[in-house]
Amino acid sequence: MSKNKKATLVTTTALATAVFLSGCGLFGGEEKKQIDPPQNASYLEESEMEMVEESGGTDAKTEGSEEAVETTVSTELYLIDKNGYVVSQTMDLPKTQSVAKQALEYLVVNGPVTEMLPNDFRAVLPADTQMTVNIKDGVATVDFSNEFATYNEEDEQRILESVTWTLTQFDSVNTVKIQINGKALESMPVNGTPIGEELTRANGINVSTDGVVDITNTKPVTVYYLGGEAESYYYVPVTKRVANDGSNDIEAVVEELAAGPGYGTGLLSQFQTGVKLLDDPKMQDGQVTLDFNESIYGSFEEKMVSEHVLNTLVLSLTEQKGIESVAVTVNGEAGLKKEDGGDLTKPVTRPQNVNTGSF
């Protein structure tokens, strides 16, 4: 499963928007995340920061410099929503050389994230939890303080997913190891969930096994559905188990999106009934082309594709290894319309940041 780890440094006055996707404040820009900031980055001294705060801005220029000083870093924090799903929320955090450690610090209950939490979201790690993060050869080893072991039993799997997905957004992190006071954990301290040597995104997120009788004959795919309510939707990743019968993973993703999240999940889909592929997906140079029947339209008269249908397609498919962009045709023809009235003339790439709005 591709992690598609990307990020950017931004000022608090603006958040970069996606090249091809837009709307609802859910998406951000397209540069890669890096643990080590660029060598040519500028930093504010304490006296300069006070001047910036007094002037009411964070993109002030240092004397003699023509480039704006960047004082925040755009970071995905995997928080818990009102339905118990682990969901990324992109926030501008103070610029630091320890962005991985800072990201975890912003997952702590009653920590610095408190005043920034979107409506109906909560932090993940127990209050007062402290940690160190050591990154070497793609492995992030997190050593938590004793407070880490004081979480509620029902949050155990959510904590594993949140820590893993928050850290693996960074290019230098592929896997995660967890310790408490220097002692490696083989299982979680409250409910005993096995950890194994390393955690990766391949373990899934918000894992659903609904309708699965024999899990040994299945494989995981991660798809994105809508959470929240109208005018304040956000995208929720769900790892589902599908039949391991040799079928194409791309087709499996499309089928799960078309089937929807199911009743009682608190999630939504804007796919119309009867959506299906008319031909096998075509892959070339990281681009997958999908040819749908007319049920993919949100509006038959205008031949318009819903923004959320397009976004969930792109987010879900770019979780697959090797897929960087998605092109959509209907009955073999291009020239579709997007919900904002624009033409869908180019393949759509995955945005750097997801769920950037404040709800």
Automatic annotation (TrEMBL):
<dbReference type="InterPro" id="IPR019606">
    <property type="entry name" value="GerMN"/>
</dbReference>
<protein>
    <submittedName>
        <fullName>Germination protein M</fullName>
    </submittedName>
</protein>
<dbReference type="Pfam" id="PF10646">
    <property type="entry name" value="Germane"/>
</dbReference>
<feature type="domain" description="GerMN">
    <location>
        <begin position="100"/>
        <end position="189"/>
    </location>
</feature>
<feature type="domain" description="GerMN">
    <location>
        <begin position="250"/>
        <end position="339"/>
    </location>
</feature>
<feature type="region of interest" description="Disordered">
    <location>
        <begin position="336"/>
        <end position="359"/>
    </location>
</feature>
<feature type="compositionally biased region" description="Polar residues">
    <location>
        <begin position="350"/>
        <end position="359"/>
    </location>
</feature>
